[in-house]
Amino acid sequence: MLEVLKSLFKKTGPKKLDVDKSGNGVDEPLVLAVLVILIEVSSADQVIDEEETIQLVTLLERYFGIPEDLTVKYVPQAIAERKATGSLDEFVKRINNAYSEYQREMLLTLVWRMVLADSKIDDKERKLVVQMRYRFKLSEEAADRAREKAGG
């Protein structure tokens, strides 16, 4: 029985985002990569609303165990890293290397939650979510599940 459970875990991988696909705790560069993606999505419409800010803090606490005071520390760091690289490629690569397919689908759910936080879906936000689906190497079915889980 134990072997069956172990093999099932190996197939699906961890079901949280505070550990990588091997079950190891995530490092700061990975947290920053996720944060960059979430900030990018929330600012796609050129405005980060209060609802989006609250959602960001909530998601980081719920999925990574990062309290609000540390989120305040990480946000400027993530923004600086994003500006320094000029592209999302490095951040997406970190995410794809560290997370299982299930975890990347979960992350796309968080992306959708950021988009839906202000109750408005802008065309730029929608396009960015589609790009993230492709960049996270997820199927259309996985993307549909992510949106459904997010409430959209």
**N-end to C-end Cα span:** 38 Å
Helix count equals 8
Order of H and E elements:
HHHHHHHH
Largest sheet: none
Structural class: mainly alpha
Share of helix among residues?
A: over 70%
Number of strands: 0
CA-based shape: globular
Question: How many structurally independent domains?
Answer: 1
Describe this entry's structure for a reader.
- Helix content is 72%, strand content 0%.
- It is mostly helical and 152 residues long.
- The protein has one domain.
- Helix 2 crosses helix 5 (89-98) and helix 2 runs parallel beside helix 6 (101-116).
- The longest helix is centred in the middle third of the chain and has 18 residues, at 68-85.
- The radius of gyration is 15 Å and the shape is globular.
- The termini are far apart.
Layout of helices and strands:
Blueprint: H1 2-12, H2 28-42, H3 50-64, H4 68-85, H5 89-98, H6 101-116, H7 123-135, H8 140-150
Helix pairs in contact: 2-3, 2-4, 2-5, 2-6, 3-6, 6-7, 6-8
Using brief descriptors, characterize the structure shown.
72% helix; 152 residues; globular; 8 helices; disordered N terminus; single chain; 0% strand; mainly alpha
Explain briefly what this protein structure is.
The chain is an all-alpha fold and 152 residues long.
